[in-house]
Amino acid sequence: MTKLSLIAVCSSLMLGVSAPALAVDFPHLTTSGYGEVVAKPDMATFSVSVVESTMTAEQAKSKVDDVVGRFLNSLKQAGVADSNIASSNLYLTPQYHYPKDEKPELVGYRASRNVAVTVKDISKLNQFLEVALVDGINQIDNIQLTVSDEAIYQEQARQAAIKDANQKARSLAKGFNRDLGDVWEIRYNNSNTQPVLLKSMKMDSSRMESDSYQDASITIRDRVEVVYKLED
């Protein structure tokens, strides 16, 4: 089960400062509330590349298509749905040698294709990376770790931010011997969640054994500003 921890983050407080766009001509108090939820990633997306350079365009295309075909077939046999696989079209470019003071010489062709895979169960990530290695994939472009229920965690972070703002407002009002009135204005800008990105790597067996992603965590943040009236 995903472990969550709510973190109360210290924030700056403003007393008697009005909103830039609105003139507030009554006693008021503004607080900024912050909330965080720390979640363990439970799914991942990774993208791989197949790159081949040969003397002819036909050979380069054939080699790349063969590798991608084997990889896609292996993924489907492992139970990966078509909707979780995205394969790009073939990209073919001529390769030239540029001798000094001479015309460029065609020396071959470079073909490449990319495949992106969404892994719904993060415990199977290494399995799919090993499949890529066996099938001849020669480059991992990136691995992105995410959470499947991000909206739930974002709501928890938002509620934590609201609670933080309310607690600070009550504390400030009490400290200045004032009574906290109604909420006059709420300012909210949704915070974006940053997934965990792992670096690209060449496909080799020694580096495939790393399970460091299993210790990763994702921090989901939210923030709210609230303007309260102060009672006389």
Automatic annotation (TrEMBL):
It holds the Pfam family SIMPL. The keyword Zinc-finger does not apply. One of its GO terms (biological process) is DNA damage response. Gene3D superfamilies: Protein of unknown function (DUF541), domain 1, Protein of unknown function (DUF541), domain 2. Keywords: Signal. Residues 1-23 form the signal peptide. The keyword Transcription does not apply. PANTHER family: PERIPLASMIC IMMUNOGENIC PROTEIN, SLR1258 PROTEIN. This is Oxidative stress defense protein. It comes from Vibrio xiamenensis.
